[in-house]
């Protein structure tokens, strides 16, 4: 009986001593304890906000660079319209009309030769026959009439170019107003200048044709006046008068 009580007492003492013995084993580590530091937390939040702001600035910078590249691409884009072919065709039509000039062409050597032959001082020389004077006068008249016809044909051709020029001008102005970049606007402006140059070429052709016709008309009048003086001189120059002679109506009669 005493032995049982002694064993029970020892077992109870062992149970009471167990928590104290196991306490170091189940103790909470020091590094697992969470400590809140407001200052450190505020600094961390501030650093995060600054990093976010830098990222936003970089995004904005990339967007600006992308927009700059887009603008550069627009400035380098070519104009999708050209009126050069139509303008060249108009100039070629006017040149063809000038090259088809009748009589005396637009050539210095041809003009000098024609004036020396039919308009100069030698055209009404004393050695020329009446038939030569009449032929020269007729050729001068033909040259004058032909030059007037040529001038009217050039005028008609230039008037025919007006409608084409109006269409091209409207198209170029529309392209210039709708240009997406500096290069397109510049190219549209250059084509408008080319259109103006073509119109000046037409105007030059008309002035040249009219001047040619007027010059030939004046030259004809001057040559006609000189020829008139020569014919008047010949008419007034005393010649061999009438001389009587013997006439026989019937051969062999006395």
Q: Can you describe this structure in just a few lines?
A:
The protein is an all-alpha fold and 254 residues long. It has helices at 2-22, 38-75, 84-99, 108-119, 130-177, 182-236.
Report on this model:
α3 packs parallel to α6. The chain has six helices and no strands. The chain has helices at residues 2-22, 38-75, 84-99, 108-119, 130-177, 182-236. The longest helix has 55 residues, at 182-236. The relative contact order is 0.10. It has 254 residues and is an all-alpha fold. It starts with a helix and ends in an 18-residue tail after the last helix.
Topology of this structure?
Blueprint: H1 2-22, H2 38-75, H3 84-99, H4 108-119, H5 130-177, H6 182-236
Helix pairs in contact: 3-5, 3-6, 5-6
Largest sheet, strands/sense/barrel: none
Number of helical stretches of at least 4 residues: 6
Give the overall shape.
rod-shaped
- Rg calculated over all Cα atoms: 57 Å
Decide which structural class fits the backbone: mainly alpha
How far the N terminus sits from the C terminus, by CA atoms, comes to 228 Å
Which sequence of SSEs, written as H and E, runs from N to C? Answer: HHHHHH
How many extended strands? Answer: 0
The helix fraction, in percent, is over 70%
Provide the low-confidence segments as ranges: 20-28
Q: How much β-strand is present in the residues?
A: under 5%
What's the pLDDT, averaged over the residues?
Answer: 81
Can you tag this structure with a few keywords?
254 residues, mainly alpha, 6 helices
């Amino acid at each position: 009986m005493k032995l049982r009580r002694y064993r029970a007492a020892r077992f109870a003492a062992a149970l009471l001593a167990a928590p104290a013995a196991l306490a170091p084993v189940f103790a909470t580590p020091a590094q697992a304890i969470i400590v809140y530091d407001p200052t450190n937390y505020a600094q961390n939040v501030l650093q995060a906000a600054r990093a976010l702001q830098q990222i936003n600035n970089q995004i904005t910078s990339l967007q600006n660079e992308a927009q700059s590249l887009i603008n550069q691409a627009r400035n380098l884009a070519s104009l999708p319209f050209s009126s050069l072919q139509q303008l060249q065709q108009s100039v070629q039509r006017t040149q063809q009309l000038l090259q088809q000039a009748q009589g005396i062409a637009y050539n210095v050597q041809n003009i000098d030769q024609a004036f020396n032959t039919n308009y100069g001082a030698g055209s009404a020389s004393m050695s020329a026959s009446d038939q030569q004077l009449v032929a020269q006068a007729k050729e001068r008249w033909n040259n004058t009439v032909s030059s007037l016809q040529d001038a009217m044909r050039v005028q008609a051709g230039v008037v025919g170019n007006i409608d084409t020029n109006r269409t091209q001008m409207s198209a170029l102005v529309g392209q210039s107003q709708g240009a997406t970049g500096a290069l397109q606007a510049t190219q549209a402006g250059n084509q408008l200048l080319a259109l103006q140059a073509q119109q000046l070429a037409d105007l030059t052709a008309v002035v040249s044709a009219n001047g040619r016709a007027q010059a030939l008309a004046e030259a004809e009048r001057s040559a006609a006046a000189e020829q008139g003086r020569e014919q008047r001189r010949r008419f007034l120059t005393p010649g061999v008068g009438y001389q009587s002679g013997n006439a026989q109506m019937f051969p062999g009669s006395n």
